[in-house]
Specification:
- The protein has about 350 residues and is an alpha/beta fold.
- The chain has one domain: TIM Barrel.
- It is about 30% helix and about 15% strand.
- Helix 3 links the parallel strand 3 and strand 4.
- Helix 2 packs parallel to helix 3.
- The two termini are about 25 Å apart.
Length: about 350
């Protein structure tokens, strides 16, 4: 469907957990108080929302977290989403730590693409950023995934971590050499490496992002043959470039210095069922309240065991979800205000919102 500004909304990011097995400095460095599992949507509830979303025109879904692979039924969910009429693509974003044991089940479930969040190839810096010594494991799995018949992308936040001090706080300065190591991955593997400007949400407010205009100038100086790559790489806002002879491409997602709100095609579902239409604002609608209306809380936490009151395709349930989702999408803001921090109303950390 279209929002009030005529933008076609066809992409939904679904967070399935607020838990993570890393402690990245800009996301949840000291951990967070995770929600009780009964507060998180069940597979059947996510399926019900996805069925409604597909009927409204959503055709592509990104599964995120937290770290989605810490949820044991993640691969089962991918299979469920893939079976919904109208859903054309289901992809996932992961930090890659658990991908070695989940790659085969994901492929079997029909996953259409894998994004790996990875900010550095330096083992020392990786441990400083994430709190864990897992880079070797992630790189081995990345190489394995790159040999599979699905697109693989690396997501790196645009912060210069090379100057990170002992307190763990990085400085954002142009001229970092870390990005070149990341770019050079495209010469060895058929993957896309995307740099993402840090958005001032949650712990991200403490860090200044690298301006991608400056980064692109550095890339042109380092790779004189760099050229724009106009091929279709996905359905997000990345602008792609290619080094002649490279197996992969480089993408820039410039939310701050290359505002792309006019073409925004996405909505977000948090792990607790809150539908957000813009990352910058708290505005949205509580779909979990619709899914669980009139129901008693089950005893104990269980493991995502809250029973769905109706089947996911129940006509009345779908009507209620559809009305709520339509209302939210019709009120989707024209643009974010990240360049005006005082006007940002979103107060949650990214781990609670979903990546």
């Amino acid at each position: 469907m279209k929002d009030s500004f005529g933008r076609s909304i066809d992409y939904m990011r679904i967070s399935i957990t607020d838990r993570c097995n890393l402690r990245c400095r800009y996301c949840m460095p000291d951990g967070v108080e995770c929600l009780a599992r009964r507060e998180i949507l069940t597979l059947e509830e996510i399926e019900a929302v996805a069925i409604c979303a597909a009927r409204l025109g959503i055709s592509r879904i990104k599964v995120t977290g937290g770290e989605p692979l810490v949820r044991r039924d993640c691969c089962q969910l991918v299979k469920m989403l893939k079976s919904i009429p109208g859903i054309e693509k289901v992809t996932i974003t992961t930090n890659g730590v658990l991908l070695d044991r989940c790659l085969a089940p994901l492929l079997e479930a029909g996953i259409d693409g894998i994004n790996i969040s990875l900010d550095t190839l330096d083992p020392f810096l990786y441990k400083k950023i994430t709190g864990f010594d897992c880079l070797g494991r992630v790189m081995e799995t990345m190489e394995l995934a790159a040999g599979q018949p699905v697109p693989v992308k690396i997501n790196a936040v645009s912060i210069d971590f090379s100057s990170m001090d002992e307190s763990g706080e990085p400085a954002a300065v142009s001229g970092s050499t870390g990005w070149k190591q990341m770019v050079d991955l495209t010469g060895r593997y058929p993957i896309d490496v995307r740099f993402i400007e840090m958005m001032p949400i949650g712990y991200g407010k403490q860090f200044k992002t690298m301006n991608h205009k400056d980064l692109l100038e550095e890339m042109y100086r380092e790779y004189p043959g760099l050229e724009e790559d106009h091929r279709q790489h996905g359905y997000g806002p990345a602008v792609y470039y290619r080094i002649p002879g490279a197996l992969g491409s480089v993408g820039l997602i410039s939310a701050i210095h290359g505002k792309f709100c006019n073409d925004c095609n996405r909505i977000r579902l948090t792990s607790q069922g809150y539908l957000k239409t813009c990352l910058c604002y708290e505005d949205g609608t509580d779909l979990r309240a619709i899914l669980r209306e009139g129901m008693d809380m089950p005893e104990g936490e269980g493991h995502y065991r809250w029973p769905l009151k109706d089947c996911p395709d129940d006509e009345m349930l779908q009507k209620c979800l559809s009305y709520a989702m339509r209302q939210a999408i019709e009120h989707k803001p024209a643009a974010h205000c990240f360049e005006r921090p005082g006007q940002i109303t979103e107060s949650h950390n990214m781990i609670s919102i979903g990546g």
